[in-house]
Amino acid sequence: MADTEKIIEIEVLRYRPEQDKEPVWQTYKVPFTDDMSVLQGVQYIKDYLDETVSFRWSCRMAICGSCGMMIDDKPKLSCKTFLRDYYPGKLRVEALKHLPIERDLIVDATDFMKKLESIKPYIIPKEERTLAQGEYLQTPQQRDMYEQFSSCINCMLCYAACPQYGLNPKFTGPGILALMHRYNADSRDGGQAERNELGYADEGYWGCTAVGYCSEVCPKGVDPANAINQNKMNSAINYFTRFITPGGADK
Amino acid sequence: MKRSNEPIFWSLFGAGGMLAALIGPALVFITGIAVPFGLIFKPDTMSYAHMLALSQNWAGKIFILAVIALFLWHAAHRIHILLHDFGVHAVTAVRVLCYGGAFAGTVIAAYTLLMIKA
Ligand code: SF4
Ligand code: FES
Fold this sequence. Notes:
The complex is a heterodimer. By secondary structure, chain A is of the alpha+beta class. Chain A has 9 helices and 7 strands. Chain A has helices at residues 38-49, 110-118, 140-144, 157-161, 163-167, 174-184, 192-199, 213-217, 224-241; strands at residues 6-14, 24-32, 68-71, 74-77, 91-94, 101-103, 106-107. In chain A, α6 (174-184) packs across α9 (224-241). Chain B has one domain: Up-down Bundle (3 helical TM bundles of succinate and fumarate reductases), CATH 1.20.1300.10. Helices cover 77% and strands 0% of the residues of chain B. Chain B has 4 helices and no strands. FE2/S2 (inorganic) cluster (FES) binds next to loops of chain A.
């Protein structure tokens, strides 16, 4: 039963900058089996029906974060989404919302990459240690404070989900703010003050209006909405106590 | 990067939300259902004399002001960001209407309560 061949219609939003003034839909009939992902469906199109269709992918197992697309208007990893769930209906695939289309299903991730760099996504040691002093130790409890937020694969699904990012691309956005929290919440890290200058701005945590769709679409259970909410609390406390805490008033 | 002033509005929003969640339904039940229908409480619980006594007392004044003002600020912020989410871009106008309304409500409530002499 699993291997009887069925045909599903996949509509792909095409955009070839050299010939299309604006994106256009194109429909393909794709034979599929129950174990085929949407990514495999699109790969079938490229291999057998139309080699000009462009898209990104690499790992095929929800690890690399490159195959995100809108599938029936929801941001999803195409390697983690199955054609059988859309059959006997058809499905529509298009580039992730809120990001400029570079070509077909490929988005321009420049803005995301710039923002990712800007939050210093690495541990800034609280105290310098020499090799002889050994490693930075961390208890399991301390690790639990950030572990969930370290699962992000930079797939940008949450950016396609976030209405605030859609309205105002200056907003740092869910995934990167969650990653900022990941480093700030790490017991070995001492970079909070540097990072929170952005975090405490309108472009940081405060650009979020707690819609929560980011956490719903995240394929890795990162829960960016939760990370941001925790930091709104910290930011608000800091806002009101900055004049009475040493070094707090300078920002 | 400029520090956001959002914590002011967010804190009022949060305080209002907390208060609303804690006592909102109970207040609706007591003032809107139980007392008018003569359930549980004595029928004159919300009589003019009792309500006047409540608002003459300092603790009573603070309670009434907190309920009115914080509920207003909560609603103002919620409506403001909801309109924003729906893409209403007249940012300044929306802000002035929402927060201005809550501010006006707070000032009027505070003034009125202060004018009620013991
Ligand atoms: S937080 Fe989740 S949805 Fe957002 S980029 Fe990271 S893995 Fe993707
Ligand atoms: S191909 Fe790597 S996440 Fe889908």
